[in-house]
Amino acid sequence: MATSSVCSISARLGSALAAALAAAVLTLAAAPAALAGATDPAAARVDAFDHALVETMKAGPALGAGGRAKRLAPAVAAAFDLSTMTRFAVGPMWAKMTPAQRDALTAAFMRLTVASYAHNFESYGGERFDLDSDVQTRGADKIVQCKLIPPHDKPVALIYRMRQTPDGWKIIDVYFDGISQLTTRRSDFVQPLAAGGAAGLLSHLDALTEKLLL
Fold first, then answer.
1. Residue 173 is part of a domain; what is its CATH number?
2. Which domain holds residue 52?
3. Quick check: 130 and 27 in contact, CB under 8 A?
4. Domain count of the fold of the chain
5. Chain segment 15-24, per-residue pLDDT in tens
6. pTM for the full predicted model
7. Do residues 99 and 6 touch, judged by C-beta distance below 8 A?
8. H-helix or E-strand containing 47?
9. Cα(15)–Cα(25) distance, rounded to whole angstroms?
10. Angle at 58 between CA 54 and CA 59, to 5 degrees
C-alpha cells in the first residue's frame, strides 16, 4: 500500500468505515516478532486480525477486491462481535425485528465490514501496526490502541473497543482518529431504516458492499 493509498484510506475510513470500520488494527504483523502487549487476550485478538490484514495486503493486487474479501472473511468473523455491532448500528428498531430479519442484517453487516477492509487495504507498501502495550479497562470493556505506520507518512491512530464474549474478547467498535465508526454507521442507517424498515436497510447494506467490491 503506497503513501497515496494511506491517504485515501484516511479519507475513506472516516466516511465509509463507516463505514466501519471498521476499521484497522495493531501490532507489528509485518515482522515475525510478537509485541509484549499482545499477551493480553484482547490485544492478542486484534494482533491476529492485524496479521491477517497485512498478509492480505501483501497479496492484494493479485487477489483483487473479491479475493481479498474472501481471504479476510474468516479473520473478520473471528475478530469482531458482529451481532452486537449490528444491533447497536440498527438501534431501537432492532427490538421490533424478527429473528430472521436480525440474522439477515447481521450477515449483511458482516459482508459490508469485510468489503470495507478489502477495499481500503488493497496493497502493501511497508506499513506496520504498532501496538500500545497499555491495554485499558473501561467497565466491562477493554480498549486496545495502536497506530498504522506507513513508511513515508504520518501514523494513523486506531482504537479498538473490545468486549468479552463466549468466544473470547472481540471488537465491538473501531475509532479512527477519535471517530466511532459504529456510531457513523448508525447515522448512515437511519434513512434506509425509516424508509424501508429491515428490508430497506438490507438493500442499502448490499448496495454499499457491491460498490466497495467493484
1. 3.10.450.710
2. 3-212
3. yes
4. 1
5. 433 333 333 3
6. 0.81
7. no
8. helix 41-58
9. 18
10. 120
